[in-house]
Amino acid sequence: MDLSLMNKAQREAITTTEGPVLVMAGAGSGKTRVLTHRIAYLLQEKDVPSYNILAITFTNKAAKEMKERVDKLIEEDTSQMWISTFHAMCVRILRRDIDKLGYDRSFSILDTTDQLNVVKDVLKSMNLDQKQYPPRQFLNAISNFKNALITEKEAKENAYDFREKLNADIYSEYQEVLYRNSALDFDDLIMLTIQLFEKESDILNYYQTKFQYIHVDEYQDTNHAQYKLVYMLSQKYENICVVGDSDQSIYKFRGADIMNILNFEEDYDNVKTILLEENYRSHQRILDAANNVIENNMSRVPKNLVTSRGKGEKIISIVSQNEREEGQRIVKQIQKLKNEGYNFSDMAVLYRANSQSRAIEDALVKSSLPYNMVGGMKFYQRKEIKDLMSYMKVVLNVHDDIAMERIINTPKRGIGPKTIDTLRNHARSLDSSIYDAIKDADFIGLSKKNAENLANLLEVLENLKEKSKFMTITDLVDEILHDTGYVDMLIRENTLESNSRIENLEEFKTVTKEFDETHEIGDELLFDFLSDMALVSDQDNVDDLDAVTLMTIHASKGLEFKVIFIVGLEEGLFPSFRSMDTEEELEEERRLMYVAITRAMERLVISRATTRTIFGKTNSAMESQFWSEIPADLIEGEDLISVYNGATKKRKPRAKSQVFTNNSGVSFNIGDKVTHQTFGDGMITAINGSGDSEELDIVFSKAGPKRLLAKFAPIEKKD
DNA sequence: CGTAGCAGGTTTTTT
DNA sequence: ACCTGCTACG
């Protein structure tokens, strides 16, 4: 294998296959290349069977890519190698043996919405007011318990005040509901795998023996449970290689513990530590910006990335008056860079919060530029998709009451809350599920009509369950939509909304078709499909089309683009006002900024607005401290007027508010060029209000954006 | 049981 | 500004 193109540190990381290895890999230092070559090296040079290799990545997409890249490097068989995310790996392990923990092997996986509904139900059953006790907080507490591997019993024992006791009680109730439903949340996947290993030492031993070489990517973002899992698996051979960058740790809110990577050298014996400090991705100016920003973090191991790539262009800065204008000017800049030869797919717009995407999207749509958005209101969270998947979940696991309650009256079958309550109570008395309770519908005091409807539903579901074993997922989807009357319901509604729902269901079938192409019909099919769906990450949906990518900075982790736009660089938005209380949280925000900057290879654009509307209220916004941490000589401001010339020309005047007549009877329009006594030349970009309080927004080429009282503005029209 | 209309909270990030 | 959940009425 040819390692001559690698630097010394990379080569060392690739060839040190025995014993614990810690690779501290700076942004863009080629860590994915190191990991793929290391795996290829094991297979080819060390003759390690692929069966003995495990590699854990952060997203399914990264896993898929890594496997493809290994396959390209060598001829050896890679089919038995496990490259997957923590969660997908645990699903695979639990699928085999979770019955030993009392769960059904056809367990369901809950998404956040389902989890929230369970907490709400628990609160209801405990007679607690949701307003006084926000369900979200309990969900957080539960997640924290699980990430820290604290059982319900331990939580109760260690609860000292009222709130802790309540958290523990709700945790325990919540867990019982999930157990009854054979349902697992994301955190359970990890925690229960560890519990399984602790309970059944022969199962642990099996995997310890199997996984002789273990790799973990993005190790800085592992939580305690994931840390423990890796630790357990690696105890037999201790051939463990973890890769990460403490400066890119951005998932603390989700339980990630930066100490996992910082303590690695203490946790394992004879650790070989390798530093990758040469950056192959970004031009010098971009790297300088990143280094200058991250240096402001006090609690970090100092390091400085160097690049062998050229100096590059200056960073472009854009200051707009509001988020609408920000969107327009980003679009303008995108078009400019497109003309310079960049593809749309070379460019990504990054923001702190999903809510910021709207203004950017609007601007892109208006200019008919292609874009694809990662995350946000996810496709899989739409009602019709969730309904369909709930049907599939019930077909697979009839005891999944969470899914059952979702579909029992969709389409309407006259089964209301009262009936569901009766069924639920009966299910509890049977110590079973609603599905079983429905079988007794005739004897538990329901109306004849109700019992009949329920019997019909049961028959439909039972038929579907039989059929499901002999058909593709796509066919099963068709059967479900038809047999349950779901499509008929939408067709009958015949509204804009219902039609779009039908389209979405059709769209869903492109996903199922893709799945069907790579999977065999059989008993495992539905389970595999549903767990795949539950574990897709946002990044997995990045298309390959020539389109601008829109996403949160979190979602951009591990990716790179020639051109990066970081928008909304305002105090309170980024850094988020929720993270400004403690130095620790602020430093995590700064790492986020560091991640954002280092995604860029060639061009970086930073953008902010001086006012921003949140909850329908417009507030003025100060420049983000991270912006000022970038040395000014690296930045070049966009000439505002030249940007405006193109941007406003196309805009059609809307209504009378667009026109303003001054005291001397001259009327002004948006887009008019004007001369101001003191500010010089500029252009009117907005006219707000009316009468004496009417204000003009004017962007001046020298003085920048200003808001002036229309009545008194000493301006003249220019042509 | 079902729907329409209103009140209140909500935006930080996600496998 | 938007979404969810509650209430009152048909």
Topology:
Layout: H1 8-15, E1 21-25, H2 31-44, E2 53-57, H3 60-73, E3 82-85, H4 86-97, E4 108-109, H5 112-125, H6 135-147, H7 152-157, H8 162-180, E5 183-184, H9 186-199, H10 201-210, E6 213-216, H11 224-234, E7 240-244, H12 259-262, H13 264-267, E8 272-276, E9 278-279, H14 284-294, E10 306-307, E11 315-320, H15 323-339, E12 347-351, H16 357-366, E13 371-373, H17 383-396, H18 401-407, H19 417-430, H20 434-439, H21 448-468, H22 473-483, H23 486-493, H24 496-518, H25 525-535, E14 548-552, H26 553-556, E15 561-566, H27 583-598, E16 600-609, E17 611-614, E18 617-620, H28 625-628, E19 635-637, H29 640-649, E20 659-661, E21 667-669, E22 673-676, E23 680-688, E24 695-700, E25 704-709, E26 715-717
Parallel strand pairs: 1-7, 1-8, 2-3, 2-6, 4-5, 6-7, 9-10, 11-16, 11-19, 12-14, 12-15, 13-14, 15-16
Antiparallel strand pairs: 17-18, 20-21, 22-23, 22-26, 23-24, 24-25
This protein binds a DNA duplex (15 and 10 nucleotides) through helix 4, helix 9, helix 19, helix 26 and helix 27.
Description of the molecule:
The chain is of the alpha/beta class and 719 residues long. The chain is built from 29 helices and 26 strands. The strands form seven sheets. The chain has a seven-stranded parallel sheet with strand order 13-14-12-15-16-11-19, with helices on both faces. Strand 17 and strand 18 form a beta hairpin. Helix 21 runs antiparallel to helix 22. The radius of gyration is 29 Å and the shape is globular. The N and C termini lie far apart (68 Å). About 3% of the residues have low confidence. The structure holds a DNA duplex (15 and 10 nucleotides).
